[in-house]
Amino acid sequence: MKEIVLAGGCFWGVEEFISRLQGVLETEVGFANGRIENPTYEKVCHENTGFAEAVYVRYDENKLPLDKLLEEYWSIIDPTVINRQGPDVGSQYRTGIYYLDKNDKKIILESKENIQKHYDKKVVTEIEELRNYYKAEEYHQKYLKKNPGGYCHIKLD
C-alpha cells in the first residue's frame, strides 16, 4: 500500500472526491507542512501556521497507480492560483502534493509537467516531501458523508 497527502482547497470536498476512487483504501483530513505542533482548525484558519488543509490518502498502487491518482487530483483543482480554490481564500487553501516516498517525486514532477501543457498560466501547486501532518478534528472527518448537503467547492455528481 502507498501513501500520499494532497491539498486542494477545502479538505471536505477533496476527501469525498478521492474516497470514491477505485483503489483508495483510506482517507483522512488534516493539516500538512506547517510550522507549529498540534494545530487546530481554528489556528490554521486564523493564525499564520503555514499549514495546508490536506487529505491523507492510502491507496493500492496495483489498482490505482500514482500517475492515475494524480490525474484525478488535477481534475478537481485549479493549479494556477495561489492560496485559493473556489471561493476559499488563504494559504491553508493552497494546492500541494506532499510525498512520503522519495521515489514518488519523479512521477509527481512528470505529472505536473503534463498538466502544465493544459494551462497558459504557470502551475503553482507545491510539490514537497511531507514534513509533518496532523489529523484534523473528528467533526471534519468524512464531513460530506455526515453532512450530504454540506459546503463543497468541488462538483461531486
UniProtKB/TrEMBL annotation:
InterPro entries, alphabetized: Met_Sox_Rdtase_MsrA_dom (IPR002569), Met_Sox_Rdtase_MsrA_sf (IPR036509), MsrA_MetSO_reductase (IPR050162)
Any Gene Ontology biological process: cellular response to oxidative stress
Active site per database record: 10
GO CC term (a single one): cytoplasm
Pfam entry (one): PMSR
Reactions listed under catalytic activity: [thioredoxin]-disulfide + L-methionine + H2O = L-methionine (S)-S-oxide + [thioredoxin]-dithiol; L-methionyl-[protein] + [thioredoxin]-disulfide + H2O = L-methionyl-(S)-S-oxide-[protein] + [thioredoxin]-dithiol
Peptide methionine sulphoxide reductase MsrA domain sequence ranges: 3-153
A GO term, aspect molecular function: peptide-methionine (S)-S-oxide reductase activity
Entry EC number(s): 1.8.4.11
Keywords, alphabetical: Oxidoreductase
Keyword Oxidoreductase: yes
Function: Has an important function as a repair enzyme for proteins that have been inactivated by oxidation. Catalyzes the reversible oxidation-reduction of methionine sulfoxide in proteins to methionine.
PANTHER family linked to this entry: MITOCHONDRIAL PEPTIDE METHIONINE SULFOXIDE REDUCTASE
Assigned protein family: Belongs to the MsrA Met sulfoxide reductase family.
Identification of the protein by name: Peptide methionine sulfoxide reductase MsrA
Organism from which the protein derives: Clostridium amylolyticum
